[in-house]
Amino acid sequence: MIKTMKAMVLTGHGGMERYEWHEDWPMPEPGPMEALVKVGACGLNNTDVNTRSGWYSKTVNEATTGGAYEAVAEEDPSWGGRPVTFPRIQGADAVGVVVAVGEGGDPALIGKRVMGDAWQRDWSDPLNREKAGYFGSEFDGGFAEYTKTDVRNLAVIESDLTDAELATFTCSYTTAEGMLTKAKVTSSDTVLVTGASGGVGGALVQLARRRGARVIAMASESKHGDVAKLGPDLILPRAPENLRAALDGEKVTVVADIVGGPYWPRVIDILEPGGRYTCSGAIAGPIVEFDLRTFYLRDLTFTGSTVTPHQVFCDVVGYIERGEIRPALAATYPLKELPKAQQAFIDKKHVGNIVVVP
């Protein structure tokens, strides 16, 4: 019986030097109601970058850079709400094959290809956000040859897509679907998506279109050709000087934002009265200028979105199996080259998701 595996291990907050490559890391053993999964591919996300760098700490107020910060409060919460302990194997978007199950797990899962809900729940109280943690953050994830998770988090996936293609979905698409669900987006809405060339931004474009909404995507002009493949109705530059003029009469009822930063007041200013703003990121900076008069005089609704119900993950799996959404796979790298892959992700030279393969 194999006892060790290859893994990329994060040893603490900081730069890329905090990653260590191991070829003899202890293989996880599935406990009660857990499954051991041989990882076929695992996607990269901003969560991996921000957890490694310590950006979630309240001592940090700048844009996501991917670099180390001078001061990180270790007691500050991670994306999942609790401090990260080290060493940690990151990677939320693991796709693979079940090779063993612990006590209480269904043996029929063995040999099945699966995707996992990244939110790890207390299944005696599954809707309790205080008891939820994130795969690859509070729990070891998929940047390794093997990983384990609760069998109730897994979905058997029936799809012709490759493991690498499937590994683009979990974090980005459940995050995006959670945002759109909270904002109650319907076919009567016009949705403005910031950062549309990224993983979550591209997912927002596809999922809002799936709901029948009109979609306006914002992205760097060099990436407009690739963003167009996702199907938005209109594409604007990343940060037009006069956003209202650039919209040319479009009436935006929902802003789905993952960017934040100094441009933030402009996307709020163009919301129609009664409009909704939903957010699950602030890559351009978490501190924004907020005019409360715009908020209350226009009867706006703001929602933050992090912990998504398990049903959202199940819905996304269904969309994949029915071909209603498609992967945006930008590049694959060997797991051993994770720092190189993450730097490419930070540099944003690609449109879509980057995946590592053990």
From TrEMBL:
Does the UniProt entry include the keyword Oxidoreductase?
yes
Q: Which Pfam families match?
A: ADH_N, ADH_zinc_N
Q: Where is the Enoyl reductase (ER) domain?
A: 14-356
The superkingdom of the source organism is: Bacteria
InterPro entries, A to Z: ADH-like_C, ADH-like_N, ER, GroES-like_sf, NAD(P)-bd_dom_sf, Quin_OxRdtase/zeta-crystal_CS
Q: What is its EC number?
A: 1.3.1.86
Determine if Oxidoreductase is one of this entry's keywords.
yes
Q: Which PANTHER family match?
A: QUINONE OXIDOREDUCTASE PIG3, QUINONE OXIDOREDUCTASE PIG3-RELATED
Q: What is this protein called?
A: Crotonyl-CoA reductase
What organism is recorded for this protein? Albidovulum aquaemixtae
Which taxonomic lineage is given here?
A: Bacteria, Pseudomonadati, Pseudomonadota, Alphaproteobacteria, Rhodobacterales
